[in-house]
From TrEMBL:
Name of the protein described by the UniProt record: Phosphotransferase
Domain of life according to the entry: Eukaryota
Source species: Nelumbo nucifera (Sacred lotus)
Keyword ATP-binding: yes
Phylogenetic lineage: Eukaryota, Viridiplantae, Streptophyta, Embryophyta, Tracheophyta
Enzyme class label: transferase
């Protein structure tokens, strides 16, 4: 080999070595980045851990806080609000009633026809409208004028616009899904807003009065016969269909629960007397807090960036308003630690850009190549050409966040059952007779559930159901039924309007059995 040949061979060898070194270094770098991403995921998994032991601590904490909230005003982060609903509809209600439901992403108007004499609901119609974003932060007048204009259009359609129809007096149930200090079954004062609503001038105002004023302004003849939280509407419908229903839970944009409590346990209201001896209590469990809750740095940041820091802590870990944003925060951190999402950091920095329904769609993508994940990443976050292993990683993040939420909600439900002695922890054995027969202590208990997260997100629902059974144990679990109550919050409000419109019907006993 001549000098030239040798020189050429040498340069080729050097070039190959350089290329190889670059490739190796790239691979090492990308491995390092990937392992950082995997580290972020591991940390998330650990931070979100909901072992059975931890869930049982949450159950106990929920029951303890319920006691504290019933003992004194401000005694707990759980407000345990009185609802003045001491009788639940039982099937004797008759006539046509209306309901308005304000509280989440959509606003609903309903008309419900009741046959009486246990003929149950003859029919119902619903009109859904999205709440224009600007009205969520405008003035109470702006919001209520909008609501009543929709109500008027709904009523007009009923009689094809004839004046005689508009003249008719109508009774209305108003489902207002925010914390309200009730002053009667049909009136109450707004304590605070949640779920992104913020209309300062309404806080401290009587919610029914605001609605009634707007109704008067439009010249409609309608009376707010019942003002109820969505949980209470759901309980009313649940109980109407199944008398074993003792509690209701909403898991949608926000989350909350209510249940039937004995009046003598409501210590903060001494001397509270109802014919049934019971009253529905709106827990406002979205504000529940316990050191046993598995909280991550993402939750802490989400809370401090929110318009209501240190508030609604349980809700921020569970409900549909927030789950997508927790996932976005995890992806943002991964994107900062590596380049797995290309240059998407700025898109990922936009709060609430990843909505929970999209997150659920990615989580439930069962196509082998995760087509939906690719599509959503591209359309929503402008991230394209994401390798399969990264798409799988995203599905895993969704799974961790959703599983934690569902299991915590399950612990909340069992916490209620524990408080009212329906979880079997009083020793289900104590409910047995010597001969081994089951006594009435092991009673069927139904919890009505509403809200898109539970009704439309199957993996969430499966995780929740599974966790309730796991916490209760196999002996007790068959006695606890979780029942979806479709449109319960609205129809239930109409039912309550009916049962509070006719004094002749009288209170129905809903005392704890
Ligand atoms: C509200 C509750 C409501 C729940 C579900 C929460 O943000 O505070 O009153 O029941 O959302 O809609």
């Amino acid at each position: 080999m001549g000098k030239v040949g040798f020189g050429l061979a040498l340069s080729c060898a050097v070039a190959s070595c350089t290329i190889a070194a670059i490739l190796v270094s790239r691979r090492v770098k990308s491995r390092r980045k990937w392992s950082r991403v995997v580290g972020v995921l591991k940390e998330l998994e650990e931070g979100c851990s909901t072992s059975i032991g931890r869930l049982k601590q949450v159950v106990d904490a929920m029951a303890v806080e319920m006691h504290a909230g019933l003992a004194s005003e401000g005694g707990s982060k759980l407000k345990m609000l009185l609802t003045f609903v001491d009788n639940l509809p039982d099937g004797n209600e008759k006539g046509t009633y209306y309901a308005l439901h304000l509280g989440g992403t959509n606003f609903r108007v309903l008309r419900v026809q009741l046959g009486g004499e246990n003929s149950l609901i003859l029919g119902h119609e619903v009109d859904r409208q999205p709440i224009p974003q600007h009205l969520m932060t405008s003035t109470s007048e702006g919001l209520f004028d909008f609501i009543v204009s929709k109500l008027e259009q709904f009523v007009e359609r009923e009689g094809n616009g004839s004046m005689s129809m508009l003249d008719k007096r109508r009774e209305l149930g108003f489902t207002f899904s925010f914390p309200v200090k009730q002053t009667s079954v049909s009136s109450g004062i707004l304590i605070k807003w949640t779920k992104g609503f913020s209309i300062e001038d309404m806080i401290g105002k009587d919610v029914s009065e605001c609605l009634q004023q707007a109704i008067r302004k439009r010249g409609l003849d309608m009376r707010v016969a019942a003002l109820v939280n969505d949980t209470v509407g759901t309980l009313a419908l649940g109980h109407y269909h199944d008398a074993d229903t003792v509690a209701a839970v909403i898991i949608g944009t926000g989350t909350n629960a209510c249940y039937v409590e004995r009046t003598d346990s409501i210590i903060k209201c001494q001397g509270l007397l109802t014919k049934s001896g019971g009253m529905v209590v709106n827990m406002e469990w979205g504000n529940f807090w316990s050191t046993h809750l598995p909280r991550t740095s993402y939750d802490i940041d989400l809370d401090s960036d929110s318009p209501n820091p240190n508030d609604q802590g349980f809700e921020k870990m569970i409900s549909g308003m927030y789950l997508g944003d927790i996932v976005r925060r995890v992806m943002l951190r991964m994107s900062k630690e590596s380049d797995i999402f290309g240059d998407a950091t700025s898109r990922l920095s936009v709060p609430f850009i990843l909505k929970t329904p999209l997150m659920a769609a990615m989580h439930e993508d069962d196509s082998p190549d995760l087509k939906d994940v690719s599509r959503i990443l591209k359309e929503t976050l402008e991230i394209s050409d994401v390798p399969l292993k990264v798409r799988k990683l995203i599905v895993r993040i969704c799974d961790v966040v959703t599983r934690r939420a569902a299991r915590l909600a399950a612990a909340g439900i069992v916490g209620i059952l524990k408080k009212i002695g329906r979880d079997g922890s009083g020793g289900i054995m104590s409910g047995r007779t010597k001969s081994g027969e089951t006594s009435s202590r092991k009673r069927r208990t139904v919890v009505a559930i509403e809200g898109g997260l539970y009704t439309s997100y199957s993996l969430f629902r499966e995780y929740l159901n599974e966790a309730v059974a796991e916490i209760l144990g196999e002996e007790m679990a068959p006695y606890v039924v979780l029942k979806v109550s479709e449109d319960g919050s609205g129809i239930g409000a109409a039912l309550l309007a009916a049962s509070h419109s006719y004094p002749s019907i009288g209170p129905v006993n809903v005392a704890i059995k």
